Amino acid sequence: MGASGADWAPEAAALAEHGEVIAPDRPGYGSRPAPEGYVGTTVLEQSEDLARTIAEEADGPVLLAGRDFGALVGLDVLLRRPELVAGAVLVAPPLYSLVAEATDVLTAERIALGEKLHDAGPRAAMEAWLGRTTDADPAAFFADYAGITTLPVTRRELRGIVRPVLVLTGPRPEAHVRAAAAALVKALPQGRLEDGADVVAAVLGVLDEVRASS
Fold first, then answer.
1. Which partner from 55, 111, 123, 144 sits 20 to 30 angstroms from 86, CA to CA?
2. Distance (Å, whole) CA 87 – CA 206
3. Angstrom distance (rounded) from CA 194 to CA 131
């Protein structure tokens, strides 16, 4: 959330020698403006958009990498369009439906975000939540934030994912973030959990797994 394809430039540069890298912009980020009146989105809407990009631009199944809301989008592509995906690296996926204890933390977070929005406006609220400045469209951020809860996935469906998936907790994860990552990995037949946010090393590790099994 709050990141364009250009924000992945360091990872893309490091991985380019190992294969083609596609870092698309989602609506409201980078070179892709948000649609007029854009106030909400869903994981499904974003995953269908990503699936179209993969089908149009990639030569075959890809290794997906996504962070926070983008991790949910990648997970949904794995669920709905597995033929497009060889493996995935998901960083701090906010799949809080698997973690009952996240409810109180998320309620407090929403209240704090709402207060900041009221007191200082959309951009200040977005940047306070992200912990950094960004030129992203606040409308896209708030659409993503509302969309976090729109992936109605079950553990049974997750057990049907047969691709290798490495889940990273992200840097200094809060307890509910780590719990969600651990719960997801527990449900995935080929899921692994690692602390940290080294996407490049994670992608290369999963790439080795994919090549070894092919």
1. 144
2. 7
3. 23
Let me know: does 165 contact 158? Beta carbons within 8 Å. Answer: no
CA angle 73, 51, 93 (to 5 degrees): 15
Number of domains in the chain: 1
pLDDT at 35: 83
E strand or H helix at 191: strand 191-194
Q: Give the model confidence (pLDDT) of 89-116 as tens digits.
A: 999 999 999 998 899 999 999 999 999 9
The range of the structural domain enclosing residue 112 comes to 5-213
How far from each other are the two terminal CA atoms of the chain, in whole angstroms? Answer: 33
* pTM of the full structure: 0.95
d(CA 23, CA 9): 8
Which three-class secondary structure state does DSSP give residue 66? strand
CB count within 10 Å of CB 50 equals 23
The amino acid that residue 181 corresponds to is: A
Residue among 22, 27, 28, 30 at smallest CA distance from 6: 30
